[in-house]
Amino acid sequence: MERVYRPQSDVFQVTAGADAVRHARDRIVAVAIGWGVPLAPEALGDLRVCASEVVTNALEHAGGECRVTVRWTGRRLLVEVADWSRRAPVMLSPGDELPSGRGLLLVQVLAGGWDWERTERGKVVRFAFATDAAAPTAAVTEPGVPLVAHSR
């Protein structure tokens, strides 16, 4: 018998602080595990890294506060981080000599893609992880989801 998944979501605020990124990352992973999202341990590790990078960017570059939305569609785990800056996120090249700034490059590699859009109050950066059962290169047709999603 095939398991039926109902769409689920979890939304929470993050405010800059000593453990803010760790708490956000841990919550995102715990929610995925709690919902029974079929991701391999390696993919859960990649989810941790991607969540850390995107939340860190929002807190450091957009005023120290963000809203995280985690959605489970039954096929993909979607993570959206909304902040209050309308500045476009910048993905640096691997050869850049700066000591930081490669977070979105990590998200690109680990999640297989990311995207963003401006909102009335700022922007939303998002990435998605396909479940182990989903085809790794399947096009995403849900609104507001990256065209490429991660599967391992």
Automatic annotation (TrEMBL):
Protein name: Anti-sigma regulatory factor (Ser/Thr protein kinase)
Coiled-coil intervals, chain numbering: none
Keyword list, A-Z: Kinase, Serine/threonine-protein kinase, Transferase
Signal peptide limits: none
Domain Histidine kinase/HSP90-like ATPase residue range list: 16-128
Molecular function GO terms recorded: protein serine/threonine kinase activity
Gene3D superfamilies assigned: Histidine kinase-like ATPase, C-terminal domain
A Pfam cross-reference name: HATPase_c_2
Organism superkingdom: Bacteria
Keyword Lipid metabolism annotated: no
Regions that span the bilayer: none
